[in-house]
Amino acid sequence: MRFYLFNLFLYMCTLFFPVDSWWFVSSGNNRGCPRRGSASPYYFGVTDLACMNDKKRKGKRSAPARGIWDYTHRFIFYRGYYFEFFVNSNARIERSRAAGGKCGGGRERSPAGYSYLSLDCIKRCAIRYSSKFGKYDNVINNCHSFANKMSEVLCRRGSTCPSWCY
């Protein structure tokens, strides 16, 4: 009974309280994608999903990753751009985050990792994401899955863009 109650409590916390990551996934740089020379940092970040959904408002090595069922909207911030994935299965690439002026959230304080990839490469990867990995799905292909995949791309050694991004 205690095990059941603990699991229920943990589940409810992940649904109703914005968290940066699950208890078993670290935040910040997890040493999987360390600083290398002049590589640019990238960050995970979140926006309050309850606020975004409020109808009254508009608006080979392991790469760093975050939980995929957090009740927040997750994005990647790289070289001054926010990379986001929405229910319409389109990537949003902008200088400001969606609902950023109205909803709480922001990028994490410490970089998730570092990358030499060009901005053009990661933009192409974000645009081609749904054609490679499928349409948006609340459970298996959501904004968290997108952010984790973009982290894998950014964490690659060197500056060669993945072939699926072309």
What topology emerges from the helices and strands here?
Layout: H1 2-16, E1 40-47, H2 49-52, E2 73-78, E3 81-85, E4 91-94, E5 105-107, E6 113-115, H3 119-133, H4 143-154
Antiparallel strand pairs: 1-2, 1-5, 1-6, 2-3, 3-4
Helix pairs in contact: 3-4
Can you give a write-up of this model?
With about 170 residues, this protein is of the alpha+beta class. The protein has one domain (about 1-165): endopeptidase fold (from Nostoc punctiforme) (Alpha-Beta Complex). The protein is built from four helices and six strands. The protein has helices at about 1-15, 50, 120-135, 145-155; strands at about 40-45, 75-80, 80-85, 90-95, 105, 115. Strands 1, 2, 3, 4, 5 and 6 form a six-stranded antiparallel β-sheet that branches. Helix 3 packs across helix 4. The chain starts with a helix and ends in a 12-residue tail after the last helix. Mean pLDDT is about 80; it is low at about 15-25.
Give a quick rundown of the structure.
Helices cover 28% and strands 17% of the residues. It has 166 residues and is an alpha+beta fold. The chain has a single domain, classed as endopeptidase fold (from Nostoc punctiforme) (Alpha-Beta Complex), CATH 3.90.1720.
How large is the share of residues in beta strands? 15-25%
Largest sheet: 6 strands, antiparallel
Order of helices and strands: HEHEEEEEHH
CATH architecture: Alpha-Beta Complex
Radius of gyration: 16 Å
CATH class: Alpha Beta
> What is the SS-derived class?
alpha+beta
Helix content: 25-40%
Amino-to-carboxy terminus distance: 52 Å
